[in-house]
Amino acid sequence: MTALDQIITPACVIQLNKLEQNAKRVFDICEKQQLTLRPHVKTLKSLEAARIYAPAPMPITVSTLAEATCFAEAGYTDILYAVTLTPNKLTRVETLLNSAVNLTVIVDSVAAVKAMSRSLTHADSLIPVAIEIDCDSHRAGVKPDSQELLDIADEISAVKSLRFAGLMTHAGASYAALTVEEQCSIAEAERNAVLYAADRLRAQGIECEMLSVGSTPTILAPISHTGVTELRAGVYATFDCVMAGLNLCAYNDIAMSVLTTVIGFHCDENGVLIDAGWMALSRDNGTSGQAYNCGYGLVCNKSGELLKGWFVESTNQEHGIIRHKENLDPQAVFSFGDVLRILPIHACATAAQYSHYYVTSDDQTIDATWQRINGW
Amino acid sequence: MTALDQIITPACVIQLNKLEQNAKRVFDICEKQQLTLRPHVKTLKSLEAARIYAPAPMPITVSTLAEATCFAEAGYTDILYAVTLTPNKLTRVETLLNSAVNLTVIVDSVAAVKAMSRSLTHADSLIPVAIEIDCDSHRAGVKPDSQELLDIADEISAVKSLRFAGLMTHAGASYAALTVEEQCSIAEAERNAVLYAADRLRAQGIECEMLSVGSTPTILAPISHTGVTELRAGVYATFDCVMAGLNLCAYNDIAMSVLTTVIGFHCDENGVLIDAGWMALSRDNGTSGQAYNCGYGLVCNKSGELLKGWFVESTNQEHGIIRHKENLDPQAVFSFGDVLRILPIHACATAAQYSHYYVTSDDQTIDATWQRINGW
Lengths: 376, 376
Description:
Chain A is α/β, with parallel strands linked by helices. Chain A contains eleven helices and 19 strands. Chain A has helices spanning 16-32, 47-53, 65-73, 90-98, 110-119, 147-158, 180-203, 216-220, 241-245, 278-281, 347-351; strands at residues 2-3, 11-15, 36-39, 60-62, 78-81, 102-107, 127-133, 162-169, 210-213, 230-233, 256-266, 271-274, 298-301, 306-315, 320-324, 339-343, 356-360, 365-366, 368-371. An eight-stranded parallel β-sheet of chain A has the order 3-10-9-8-7-6-5-4, with helices on both faces. In chain A, helix 8 (216-220) links the parallel strand 9 (210-213) and strand 10. Chains A and B meet through helix 5, strand 11 and helix 10 of A and helix 5, strand 11 and helix 10 of B.
C-alpha cells in the first residue's frame, strides 16, 4: 500500500468515491427518464475507469479509433465514434466491424459519404453511418433545416456497404452557458434540432433508429429529453473547475486532481513554485471567462481539501506558480516539500497529459493504477 | 515506404533535413565561441531525435527523471536535471547515480538542501548539486546578490553525500523579448547573473565547476558568452511559431508539424474543420501577444508549404477550425479529405501530445518512426 505522498510528482489521482457518486447521479437521471445512456469515454480513456461509469456492455462514445479498438477488445460492442470519419481511418473501421463490433461512424456532408464510398476496401462491410446535426453553430454538423441533410441521407442509402443509423448532435455551446435557464434553453434546442431533422427525414420515408444528443451541461439540465433515444456525456464522471463554474457540481465533487510538490517560493511576488507545470496540468484556462477564474487549477492539501483562494496563476513546462487571490504571504501556509493536489480546469485536457492514474478511496493511499489509452 | 497521406491523422511529423539544419546552426555557434553545448531534450524527448542534435556522449539537460533514466540507459553519462529536486524523487536519483551516470540536480533554497539531506537513503551516494540562479524574476532560482546564495552553497558543502557542482540559470523572460536588442540585453543579464554569483562564491572560497546558462533566444543572441562554461537550449532543434515570431527562425525552418485531414466546413463563418483539436495541437496560444497571432497553428499543404493567411483559430478536443486572416472562402482552397500540416505554436507543448513521431526527408514518405519518453 503506497501512501499518496510517496509517489513521484506530478501524478494524476482519481478519487474513487467521487467518481462513483458522479456516475450514479447520471445513471439516476437516465433511469428516471427511461433513456439509454451512452457515456463518452474520452475524458479518462480508461477501461478500469469505465467499469464505474460505463460498464460493458453499455453503449459508449469514443473520440479516437484507439479508444474504439481497446474498448472493443474489452467486450464493448456498441460504439459511436463521434468525429467525422476520414478516408485514412476507414481500414481501421472495417477491421473493427469485421470483429463483430457495432461501430457507428458519423458524417455531416455528401462529400464525406462519397469519400467513404470511394475508399471502401471490403465489399462485405456494412458500416452504420449517422448524420451529425448542427444544433448551435458551434462546430461540426449539418443544419436540421438544410437540403443537405436529405441529400446526405439519400447518399448513404445509395451506397450498398453503408447503413443509415440515425442522427446525433452535441451542444458544444453549453459549456459557455452560465445559468440554469441558458443550460435548459440549449438542451431544448439540442433535442429539438434532432427531432426536427428526424421528422424531415421521416417525411421522406427515412426512419432514424438512433437519435442521440448530449453534453454534460445539457444532460444535467432539468428538462425532459422526451423523443430522443439516448443521452451522451463524458466529463461528468470526474467533473472539473469549468463544470463547477457552471454550477453543475461542487468543487468537492471533482474526482480528479494532480498531485504536486512545493519546490520553492517566488518571494517578491508571494508565489509558490510547484513541480506541476502545463505538462502536468495542461494549458487549458477555461474558467478565465467565468465569474471565478481558477487560473490553471485550484489548490487542495494532500487530503484533497480546498485551500480557499489559492490557485495556479501561471505555468511553464515543469513549473507552476501558485498565488492567493488576495496576495497572501504563502510562507505562512506552505513549506518546501509539501504535497498538494490541484483540481483540473478541464479534466479532459489534464488527463490527456498522463499514461495512467493513481486511484484513492481514502485520500491517503493508492488502491490501484489505471491505464489510459492515448493516441489515435 | 508509407506515404504521408496514408497514415491515420492526426499525427506528428518531423522534417529531418530541417532538424539537422537547426542543430547545425547551434553547433556552429558553440564551436565558434568554444563553448560546451548541453542541449535540453525536453522538446522531443526522443533518443532517435537526440542523435541529430545531442548525440551521446554530449552532455544533456532533462526536464524529468523519466528522460534521465532513458538517456542514461542509452549511454548518456552527463545529465543535468533542471527542475528543483523534491524528496519523492531522491531514490530514483540515487539509483541513477549508482549506475555511474553523472546526474546533476538543482536547488534554490536551504530548505531544499535540508530536505534532500533528510531523505538520503544510500550513505555512499555523492550527488552533484548545482544552485539555480534567478536572472530575471521569471520563475525559480535564488538572486545572485542574496545572502541565501552563500547559505545554500554552505549547506551543500556541509552534507557529506552532496557535492557542489556550480551554478545554472535560465532566462525564461527571453521568450517575450521581441527585438534582437532585448534578446541581447537579456542574454547579457543571464550571463552576468551567473558570473556575479560565481564571483561572490569564489570570494568565500567556493569554486564553481559548472556555469551553465541558456534559452533558445539567449543562445542565438549575437553576444559573447565569455565566462560561462556551457550553453543550454532545447526548442531550437525544431523551432516553432513562437520562435519565428521572435525572428529567431523562418516559418520554413520549423521542423515539426501536425498532419491532419479536412473533415468539413463551417459554412456560415468561412471555417474549415480539421481532425486536429487541442489533443493534437495543444492549448498553447503563445503567439497571441506577438505581432502575428498564429492562433493554434499555421496551415501548410501536405508537402509542408505554408498556405499564407490560413491559421487554426479555435480547437476542441478532436476538432480544429481553420480560417483565413482576411476571411476568404475556404471552399475555393480546401476539399473534404485534404491532408494538411499544421506548424506548432509551441513545439514542446505540441510534441507532448504524442507517443511517437513520423520522420520524413522528402515531405512525401515516412522514413522512420521515433519514440517519445512521456511521464515523469
